[in-house]
Specification:
The complex is a heterodimer of chains A (227) and B (388). Chain A has a single domain, classed as Orthogonal Bundle (MetI-like fold), CATH 1.10.3720.10. Helix content of chain A is 79%, strand content 0%. Chain A contains eleven helices and no strands. In chain A, helix 1 packs parallel to helix 5 (91-115), helix 3 (58-69) crosses helix 4 (74-83) and helix 5 (91-115) packs antiparallel against helix 8 (145-161). The N and C termini of chain A lie far apart (48 Å). By secondary structure, chain B is of the alpha+beta class. Chain B folds into two domains: 3-229, P-loop containing nucleotide triphosphate hydrolases (Rossmann fold); 238-377, OB fold (Dihydrolipoamide Acetyltransferase, E2P) (Beta Barrel), CATH 2.40.50. Chain B contains ten helices and 21 strands. Chain B has a six-stranded mixed β-sheet with strand order 7-8-9-3-10-11, with helices on both faces. The radius of gyration of chain B is 23 Å and the shape is globular. The chains are: A mainly alpha (227), B alpha+beta (388). Chain A binds chain B through residues 118, 120-121, 123-131, 134, 138-139, 142-143, 145, 225-227, and chain B through 46-48, 74-75, 79-81, 83, 85, 87, 89-92, 100-101, 103-105, 132, 146-147, 150.
Amino acid sequence: MLSSEEISVILLTIKAALISTFITVPIAIWLGWLLAKKNFFGKLIIEGLINIPLVAPPIVTGYLLLIILGKNGIIGGFIHDLFGINLAFNFTAVVIASIIVSLPLAVRNIKSSFELIDPNYEKASSSLGASRLGTFFRIYVPMALPGIISGTVLAFARSLGEFGATISFAGNIAGKTQTIALSVYSNMQIPGKESVVTRLVIISILISLIAIIFSEYFNKKKNYLLR
Amino acid sequence: MILQFEKVKHQLGDNHFYYDFQTDSSITGIFGPSGAGKTTLFNLLSGLDTPQKGKIKLNFEPLVDIEQNLIKQAKKRSVGYVFQENYLFPHLSVKKNLLFSKPYIKHKNKYIPFDEIVNLLEIESILNKKPRLLSGGERQRVAIGRALLSQPRLLLLDEPFSNVDCSKRRQIISYLLRINNYFKIPMIIISHHLEDILKLTHKIVVIENGCSVASGNILNIIKNNEKPELIKSKKFQNTFNVNFDSYNELKNSYTVNFNQDTVLNITNHSKLLNEFIIKGSKIQLSLRPIDIALSLEKNEAISIQNQLKGTVKQIIKNKEGAFCIIDCGFDLFVEISQEIITNLYLHEKQEVYCLIKAHDFDVVHVFEYSETLKNEIGQNEVLEPIKS
């Protein structure tokens, strides 16, 4: 059976993953559409910046977040001075770290879905009187829906497993910023806590497996819907 | 409907386009080879693309006037567009595709109701299907219905016959004539098959190498020798309307008349068997110039029953061959060799007989019985197929 501490870690992880996914997906839909359908100056640079967390070591991403959004960071310092809000080493930091590392995964998946949509559907929609916004919500989003769902699931799964960026930007504070991954790491250092580690690992694998199966299912549906 | 393209210049990559023509027909055909710039013309007219120079006017209202910096948005032009590949939205059912434009319709005058479109295009049984489950002909009809339900003042059809087989092509032509007749919506139809265009209209615009090179009535274009190649026998067809008179079951032939003096016999048309036609119903026939023979006198000792008396109106000779325009009450184009013209001493104003086999006529369309006829036979009387 799971202890109350373990349950609180799991709930905190799921809560952080849900909130970060909720924020990530609308941004990823917009960015995915923009990168797939529009040509503009600096497109490659934006694409590169979004994808940095995908290739850079997570600890580096966390360090960069600390420099930019920390209490003494470029933006974080400004926010702290103006509103008295601290973005680092709290639950908000966990969510921010999750958003940054899961965004490239969601954007890549959603972008590829938008790329599959023939631009002539936009012309057809426009000829029927739809505005650009109308076309986006009535044509692009529904047609890219399998990709959007798949991207959402991947972003959620990535948030669940986030470790490097979280530990450097949010810390490993039990009950406050300690997620499943951080708890596994902490308990691995303590002799006799193997069973806790095993239980958290099994829970983590189960959630990830379900997420990946969902993601694959909708990925396969992506082409089917567009036929 | 009056559509004017005034010195419209456009460029796409290395391709240059120039359109300068006017059309006032209820159906206009845009004819030209593939890649000539027909679809570009539609994109400019519908507002999906903007020219670099010139004016486009619809019923004298400017849609584009580059000099005045006036470019009307696509959604404000009320121009329905049926794309070559249909582009039915795959995630929506047929019904939802048809109703897609409903939230954007603001003007309510001359409203085309959903039910009438569904009945007219015979798509009631497929309303809940997804587009991927439809046949080519069904997809085409849904695309036409969807464009019509956007309540356009002009309907553009880009190669409506390209994705359908020959029998379905005939069916689509029939639907288009019905729509034009019933809703009075002007249409512009792109096709690289002249024979299909001619079944719908004689008013054409010829596009070649990105330019409009001729426009107007095809008969005048040919008579003026502007585009002599248009009359190549496989492409050009005589089309004319006749009135149904009677059916002879023993001979399996139909008698139709152009006027009191011109009676024709036509046979082998299963299409007519299932039509709800009565005496006086209007039928559109087509006939290839190559299927007509000329004789200087009426011939009794011959199996050909249709011998139309007429006079030679014009003889056209060009590198494509020789043609006569015979005035039989309507202009009939007859393909004939230059040798025969010489042998028969054919000349203008000469009296001739056009010999046509009964099965050489093609029935293009049977029009709905007219309002007058409906009143004559009574509103409630059921019209039966002439042979079941």
